[in-house]
Structures are given as structure tokens and as C-alpha cells.
Write a structure and sequence with these properties.
Elements (H helix, E strand, L loop, with lengths): L6 E6 L2 E7 L5 H8 L4 E7 L4 E7 L23 E5 L7 E9 L2 E2 L2 E2 L3 E6 L3 H14 L2 E7 L16
Antiparallel strand pairs: 1-2, 1-10, 2-9, 3-4, 3-10, 4-6, 5-6, 5-9, 7-8
């Protein structure tokens, strides 16, 4: 069961970030993604999308489930996480760390904003650059217990 205004942590490699749901923009998409939590996988650089990383969801996503568009965009802001499950590409989560236009090799995509990282976007950009230069890193997304919802306790390693 979801907790209202709950926070999440997103760990990419050794770096952990606080995030919050974007239920105000994409309630159905948030609900569908929440069912995948805790989520673990790998992120690689999203070369078609600019300064962004992406993780494939095909192994955990119901193949027949296509999401309706909810505040869908192909011009996300740094810190945005967009969920895509529609025609034209496989199910994926885009993690934006800089200037980006969501796309695949066959053209533009629009994703639904499900999460946003609001703390230390400079560090997120460093992680994105590390993925670009060195390759895949692990990603883990999980809800934080209400008692731990203040993310100030998170300690991070250096890139």
C-alpha cells in the first residue's frame, strides 16, 4: 500500500539520491511503476536522448501493458525520470541528468514523468558522465520507510 507523500531513494552505482513521486502529473503511471518496487537493474547511457541514462524494463514489465500518455514529454528537465511503455520502443525508464530530448534510434518518444530527483543535480550529472565514459552501472529504486523519509541520512561515495 502506498504512503502519501512518501520519498524514495535512487542509487546509481555508489551514489544515492532522494526522489519523490510525480503523482500530480502521472498518477496511473506512478501506480504502475510502484508495483515494480523495489526495482533493480542496470543503467546505460541513452545516446539517442542526450544527457540521460536509461534502464530497460522489459524483463519486469507486463508485455501487453501500454501506458496512456499523462503529461508526456520528450523535453524533460535534469532530475526527471520518465516512464515509457508504448509503441515505437521497449518499456524503459529514462533518468535525465542534463540537456535531453527523449528519443530512440527510430525517432522521438514521449515519456510520463513518474519521479523527480531534486537534490544535488550536479552529482547526478557526474554520475551520468561516469556512465557515458565507463559504461553500465547498477540502479536501485526503493521507497523509504516513513520514519526514514528525510533523505539527509544518505551518505554517498565519490565518483
Amino acid at each position: 500500500m502506498a504512503i502519501i507523500d512518501e520519498q524514495l531513494t535512487i542509487t546509481i552505482g555508489a551514489e544515492t539520491f532522494c526522489a519523490r513521486w510525480r503523482r500530480d502529473l502521472a498518477p496511473h503511471s506512478c501506480k504502475e511503476f510502484e508495483q515494480l518496487l523495489p526495482y533493480g537493474g542496470d543503467v546505460i547511457h541513452a545516446r539517442w536522448s542526450g544527457e540521460a541514462m536509461w534502464t530497460r524494463l522489459a524483463s519486469v514489465w507486463q508485455r501487453e501493458l501500454c501506458l496512456p500518455t499523462e503529461s508526456a514529454t520528450n523535453r524533460p528537465c535534469p532530475g526527471d525520470l520518465l516512464l515509457f511503455a508504448g509503441e515505437g520502443s521497449e518499456p524503459e525508464l529514462l533518468v535525465v541528468y542534463g540537456s535531453a530530448r527523449f528519443a530512440c534510434k527510430t525517432g522521438p518518444l514521449k515519456g510520463n514523468p513518474v519521479l523527480v530527483i531534486e537534490d544535488d543535480l550536479e552529482r547526478l550529472a557526474m554520475v551520468g558522465q561516469a556512465v557515458l565514459q565507463s559504461g553500465a552501472m547498477t540502479i536501485r529504486i526503493q521507497q523509504v520507510a516513513p520514519i526514514d523519509s528525510h533523505c539527509a541520512h544518505v551518505h554517498n561515495a565519490s565518483i
